[in-house]
Write a structure and sequence with these properties.
Elements: E1 4-8, E2 15-20, H1 27-33, E3 38-44, H2 48-61, E4 65-71, H3 80-92, E5 100-105, H4 107-119, E6 125-130, H5 133-139, E7 144-149, E8 152-159, E9 164-168, H6 177-194, H7 196-204, H8 214-233, H9 248-257, H10 267-284, H11 290-302, H12 319-329, E10 336-342, E11 348-355, H13 356-366
Parallel strand pairs: 2-9, 3-4, 3-5, 5-6, 6-9
Antiparallel strand pairs: 1-2, 7-8, 10-11
This protein binds nicotinamide-adenine-dinucleotide and zinc ion.
Length: about 375
C-alpha cells in the first residue's frame, strides 16, 4: 500500500519501477508473473549477506529455480574478468531465453549484471533490484549497462532496458551514510534540472531521503519519474538526455583528477561539487543570478555534501590540469564546448557554445 509505481513508457518495452519499503519481499511473485522459471541472481559481497537469503526465500516461495553469483564490492568489478565469471555462472545455472537475471545491489552490480543479461544467449530479461540510493534514482532506470575499460569508465556496454525495477527503500537503511549522501546529489539534480518545486520541497525536507518514510518514497519516486520521462523521450541519448549530465562535466574531471580514488571522492560527491560549479559558472557568465548559485550551494551543504574542489582531501590539481581532464570527455569545435548550464534553479539547459577560454578562466577563479 505504501509503494509507488512509476512507468517507463517505452511502448512494447514499457516497464514498472516499484518503490517502497519491503518491495523486495515480492521479488518471487513479480518474477513469476513475467513467466520466468529460473533466476540468475548477481550481487556483491556487501549486499549478499544482507539481502540474498530473503530473496532466495521469496523466489522459492514462488516456485522459481535460482542460482547466484557474487562479485567483490566496488567499481573494480566492472571489468571483463568479472563479466566472464558472471556470464559463465548464468549459463551454468541454465538461465534461458525466457528466464531472468536479477541484479541485486548498487550501480556496479546493476551495470555488470545488466550487461551480462544483454549478452547471454543474445539477451535475456533483467530485473533490477537496486539497493543504493544512486542505483534507485539513476542507474537502475534507463537501460544503460556496461563495464569499464582500462582506457576509461563505461566504455564497453549495451543499451538493455530492464523488465522491472524493484526499489526497496528500506534497503537504504543499511547503506553507509556517505553513500546515501552521494546518491542524494542525483536526487537534488532532478530538481535543479527542471523542477524548482521539487528542489524547494527538498530544501524544506532535507532529511527526506535520509530516513525511512513517505517522504523518502516520494523523493525517490519523483526522481524516477524525472529520469523515466527523459529516457522515454530520448532512449539512446541523442538529445536532451544530456541534461542528466548536469554537474557531471566538472564532476568527472574531479573524479579523474583523484584517479577515481573513492577514499577521497565518490561519484555523487563529485556531482555535488560539479553542480555547484555549473551554477557558479552560469552566474559568472551572466546567465543566472549569483543568489541562485548560492541557493544550490546552501542546500547541498545542509545535507553534508561538498560544494568546492578545495574540500576534496589532499586537494586537486590546478585549473589547466582540470581543464585537461574535461577535454578528455568532450569534443571541442572551434574553441567552443558543450556544458549543462542554468538560468536558475529548475532552469537548466544544454549550452553548446561555451568558449573554452571562459571555462578555463572560471576554473582559475575556482581553484
Ligand atoms: P556501488 O554499486 O559500488 O555501491 C556502493 C557501495 O554500497 C558498495 O560498496 C556496495 O556494496 C554497497 N551497498 C549497496 N547497497 C547496499 C545496501 N543496501 N546496504 C549496504 N551496502 C550496500 O555504487 P553505486 O553508487 O550504487 O553505483 C555506482 C555505479 O553506477 C558506477 O559504476 C556508475 O558508473 C554506475 N552508474 C550507472 C548509470 C547508468 O545509467 N547505468 C548511472 C549512474 C551511475
Ligand atoms: Zn551521476
Amino acid at each position: 500500500a505504501l509503494a509507488e509505481r512509476v512507468e517507463v513508457a517505452l511502448g512494447e518495452r514499457a516497464y514498472d519501477i516499484l518503490i517502497g519499503p519491503g518491495v523486495l519481499a515480492e521479488t518471487g511473485e513479480r518474477i513469476a508473473a513475467l513467466g520466468a522459471r529460473t533466476v540468475g541472481i548477481v550481487t556483491d559481497s556487501n549486499v549478499a549477506p544482507l539481502y540474498l537469503a530473503g530473496i532466495e526465500r521469496s523466489l522459492e516461495a514462488a516456485g522459481l529455480a535460482h542460482a547466484s553469483v557474487l562479485v567483490p564490492a566496488g567499481e573494480a568489478s566492472k571489468r571483463f574478468s568479472e563479466l566472464e565469471r558472471v556470464v559463465d555462472a548464468l549459463i551454468a545455472a541454465r538461465v534461458e531465453r525466457g528466464d531472468v537475471v536479477l541484479a541485486l545491489g548498487g550501480g556496479v552490480v546493476g551495470d555488470l549484471a545488466g550487461f551480462a543479461g544483454a549478452v547471454v544467449r543474445r539477451g535475456v530479461r533483467v530485473v533490477q533490484a537496486p539497493t543504493s540510493l544512486l542505483a534507485q534514482v539513476d542507474s537502475s532506470v534507463g537501460g544503460k549497462t556496461g563495464i569499464n575499460s582500462p582506457r576509461g569508465k563505461n566504455l564497453i556496454g549495451a543499451f538493455h532496458q530492464p523488465s522491472l525495477v524493484l526499489a526497496d527503500t528500506a534497503s537504504l537503511d543499511t547503506l553507509p551514510e556517505r553513500e546515501l549522501r552521494a546518491g542524494y546529489a542525483e536526487v537534488a539534480k532532478y530538481g535543479l534540472i527542471d523542477d524548482e518545486p521539487f528542489f524547494a520541497w527538498l530544501e524544506a525536507n532535507p532529511r527526506a531521503c535520509f530516513v525511512e518514510g513517505p517522504d523518502r518514497i516520494r523523493a525517490i519516486a519523483t526522481s524516477c519519474r524525472a529520469k523515466a520521462a527523459v529516457v522515454a523521450r530520448d532512449e539512446r541519448e541523442t538529445g536532451d538526455r544530456a541534461l542528466l549530465n548536469l554537474g557531471h562535466t566538472f564532476g568527472h574531471a574531479l573524479e579523474a583528477d583523484v584517479a577515481y580514488d573513492g577514499a577521497r571522492l565518490i561519484h555523487g560527491e563529485g556531482v555535488a561539487i560539479g553542480m555547484a560549479m555549473a551554477f557558479r559558472f552560469s552566474a559568472a557568465l551572466g546567465l543566472c543570478a549569483a543568489a541562485e548559485a548560492e541557493r544550490v550551494e546552501r542546500h547541498l551543504k545542509a545535507v553534508g555534501l561538498p560544494t568546492r574542489a578545495a574540500e576534496i582531501p589532499g586537494g586537486i590539481g590546478d585549473a589547466a590540469t582540470l581543464f585537461g581532464h574535461m577535454m578528455q570527455d568532450k569534443k571541442v569545435s572551434r574553441g567552443k564546448l558543450t556544458f549543462i548550464l542554468a538560468r536558475g534553479v529548475g532552469r537548466s539547459f544544454v549550452a553548446r557554445d561555451v568558449m573554452a577560454d571562459d571555462a578555463l578562466g572560471f576554473l582559475r577563479g575556482e581553484l
